[in-house]
Amino acid sequence: MQQLVHERAMFLPIWELAFLNGVSGRVEEPGLGLIAGYAYSAPYEDLKIRPR
Q1: Is 4 left (phi over 0), alpha (psi -120 to 50) or beta?
Q2: 3-state class of 8 per DSSP?
Q3: 8-40, pLDDT tens digit by residue?
Q4: How far apart are CA 2 and CA 6, in angstroms?
Q5: Is residue 42 part of a domain?
Q6: Domains in the chain: how many in total?
Q7: CB atoms within 10 A of CB 32
Q8: 41 lies in some domain
Q9: Domain carrying residue 30
Q10: Is 4 within a domain?
């Protein structure tokens, strides 16, 4: 089996990025996707909270 896998160059990803992100209705702009390729909410310096 290992020889067949090697010859046919099959692969299976064993790790995948999966981030859970949540935002509140009080946040004006959550920051998700503002930095291309960055999976977190950022930059925190630009985070704005709506007044109650």
Answers
A1: alpha
A2: helix
A3: 876 677 776 666 677 788 888 777 878 888 877
A4: 6
A5: yes
A6: 1
A7: 15
A8: yes
A9: 13-52
A10: no
